[in-house]
């Protein structure tokens, strides 16, 4: 049985196919409903529809169908897909709580069923990964490629995931959030990065966003966690990146580590107080954020220069020669 931990298990007794199939896709939908649960509606035989998961605005998750079996969510794509419905109408974005919940489900689907952590380019049967309903919906007036808002017609065909034409599901405001949700899922499945030993960033601490970059890809290039990169830029996993945008790298620079003198006066730029010694390389500084003359006090007797170490709390700092 494939049931996701941390969800509310509310099994359906109808409107799904009790046949085990391999899952290779996760397809995202919006339910066009403001109800916090759609279990009651999907329990009626007349509904002729179901989904594996339902995510409410507050991020709570209900599971209706064991993911080993086929839910009736995505038409011709039902046989190998996990269907997720979400609370909301056709317009408006997913809440941060919904985005986090969707990332959790995708990460679990990857670990449990081997669903690839990549965006699908169409509804063709050869496409595996993370998709959204519109990929399999016909509509003449959807935007053309390379827009993510393009539909089945614009993408050269594929499986038909809906009998309705022009259906916006999951909506113009939500589809652009999906790359960020996927990045967050990748972070949940990635091994924890080792503390950065090489902290030099060439003195700039900045990265220029290139075409095709995402929070995930930039974090891999820089060798930092995606969470650290996002936090360094006061952003969220769903914040849109723009080509040419300048980001703080989230990487620790090399700092000179010194100790307070006998009078507990911090050594700092332009001052000539005695320095009792330097911290050994590899010292972990947990900074309190208290600054004085460009120096930051740590939980140890050591201080870090440049006035920025508080933002790198817990990083391994190295001596600067």
Task: Provide the fold topology.
Blueprint: E1 8-9, E2 16-17, E3 25-28, H1 39-42, E4 53-55, E5 61-63, E6 70-71, E7 81-86, H2 96-113, E8 129-132, H3 178-189, E9 206-208, H4 215-222, H5 226-232, E10 246-248, E11 257-259, E12 287-292, E13 295-298, E14 302-304
Tell me, briefly, the overall form: globular
CATH class of the largest domain: Alpha Beta
Largest sheet: 6 strands, mixed
Number of distinct helices: 5
Query: CA-to-CA gap between the ends?
Result: 59 Å
Query: Beta-strand level of the residues, as a percent range?
Result: 5-15%
* Total number of beta strands: 14
Question: Remind me, CATH topology of the largest domain?
Answer: Lysozyme-like
Low-confidence stretches: 194-204, 252-321
Average residue-wise pLDDT: 79
CATH superfamily of the largest domain: Peptidoglycan recognition protein-like
Q: What is the chain-wise order of helices and strands? A: EEEHEEEEHEHEHHEEEEE
Task: Give the total of domains.
Answer: 3
Enumerate the strands of the largest sheet in spatial order, edge to edge or round the barrel: 1-5-4-7-3-8
Radius of gyration: 25 Å
Give the fraction of residues assigned to helices: 10-25%
State the CATH architecture of the largest domain: 3-Layer(aba) Sandwich
Characterization of this structure:
With 321 residues, the protein is α/β, with parallel strands linked by helices. It has three domains: 8-188, Peptidoglycan recognition protein-like (Lysozyme-like), CATH 3.40.80.10; 193-248, LysM domain (Membrane-bound Lytic Murein Transglycosylase D, Chain A, Roll); 257-312, no CATH class. Helices cover 15% and strands 15% of the residues. It contains five helices and 14 strands. It has helices at residues 39-42, 96-113, 178-189, 215-222, 226-232; strands spanning 8-9, 16-17, 25-28, 53-55, 61-63, 70-71, 81-86, 129-132, 206-208, 246-248, 257-259, 287-292, 295-298, 302-304. A six-stranded mixed sheet has the order 1-5-4-7-3-8, covered by helices on one side. Strands 11-14-13-12 form a four-stranded antiparallel sheet, with no helix packed on it. The termini are far apart. The relative contact order is 0.11. Residues 194-204 and 252-321 have low confidence and may be disordered.
